Amino acid sequence: MRRFDSLSEVRRELAAGTVSCQQLVEHYLDNIARQENLNAFLEVWPEEARAQAAAVDAKLAAGTAGKLAGMVIGLKDVLAYEGHALQSSSHILDGFKSLFTGTAVQRLLDEDAILIGRQNCDEFAMGASNETSYFGPARNALDPDRVPGGSSGGSAVAVQADMCLASIGSDTGGSVRQPAAFCGIVGFKPTYSRISRYGLVAYASSFDQIGTLTRSVEDAALLFEVMAGPDQFDSTVSQQPVPAYSQELTPAPQYRIGYIQDCLDRPGLNPEIKQATEAALEQLRGQGHVVEAVEFPYLDFIVPTYYILTTAEASSNLSRYDGVKFGYRAPDVTDLESLYKKTRSQGFGPEVQRRILLGTFVLSASYYDAYYTKAQRVRRLIKEKTDELLRDYDFLVLPTTPTTAFKIGDVNKDTLAMYLADIFTVQASLAGVPAISVPNGLDSQGLPIGLQILSGAFRESQLLAFANSLDLAVGQ
Hints:
The chain has helices at 7-16, 21-34, 46-62, 103-110, 153-160, 177-183, 217-227, 261-264, 271-286, 299-317, 336-347, 350-363, 368-392, 415-420, 426-431, 460-474; strands at 41-44, 72-76, 114-119, 166-171, 186-189, 209-214, 256-260, 290-294, 395-399, 435-442, 448-454. By secondary structure, it is α/β, with parallel strands linked by helices. An eleven-stranded mixed beta sheet has the order 1-3-2-4-6-5-10-11-9-7-8, with helices on both faces. Strand 2, helix 4 (103-110) and strand 3 form a beta-alpha-beta unit. It is globular and about 65 Å long.
């Protein structure tokens, strides 16, 4: 069976009777089994997927199928699905099964999506390479010696290698956009609060957002349309009505586009990525858009601010994993204190421990004002400046990553270098605005390059329409 790049292609074949949902599921199950070396899936649900496919085929025949009929989806291992394992790729959640289904996942099921398995990721979504997973790294399908990015690395590889049509991931500081860039697919993070976080394992609650990894912008728009909207189980979710994003993909003839020149002049930016970004900007000028350089004076403060705040929130959120309530419990403990110490020391990996320690430090009485309070003030400045730019311009365009996919083991031992890899993605997360990464060609080694676009909060219709046209113009 050929590879499908969008649900609309699948639906045409389903309507013509040349393929069935059951055949699609078998195709993806075969691809997963054949590419086990990529370590994209932690668990596959073959019998459930087959049963769901048969039910959807019956609905299609009866004309009662939902919007996502024919879409086979993988879930990042941070999303709750009742009765299924949920581990956040961590030893500390060994044996835990979710007691409920998260809102976003339930909405997918309600529209007849077929769920095929649980996907590898960095432990508790902390990482930029998928190397912190307790289950070992996922591997880039273009070169298995290279990382797929993180933290949603397994989710990106699964779409890249045709193991499912789409994946649902999470994005705290770029965790769907960066792996999308490394794998040559589309990664979309909506406005903070647009999709309910009920059923999403918490890393940093004021940043975490469910996002999508797809082969087309139109699929990202459709999945977003299904998952977005108010939810009684999440008091932080937006109450704004949800547009029909998938029906609003016609772009305006002209946009005002800004780009941060300091990003392109940044030391450490791969020259081929700079060249590809400049070529895309020049192409946009040629299409009649207004493209201008803008100043963003806080670029050097983005990464430190992000890591102070997210580690602080992680320290608080991960305090619940103590060996008492659920998951892994250390053996040979003598009292409650040793239970806590041994369980957390053995259950959490080095990167998660590092971030918990950093977060506890910045929240401590002696350093709270010096670090955490100051970082919150800087976050406000970053948000206000980003919002100001996005009032003057429809979009900000910048590279998704400073490098293409690096080799496994090359960066993960250099913590600072790994953190600085987030330099271009965390701005949208700090400001809470939507962002999308689309393919922007290949470098001289055949590795994908991503182009990132930011828009104003709750302006996803405009962002997706523009990205859809840009995907066609500069994609692979």
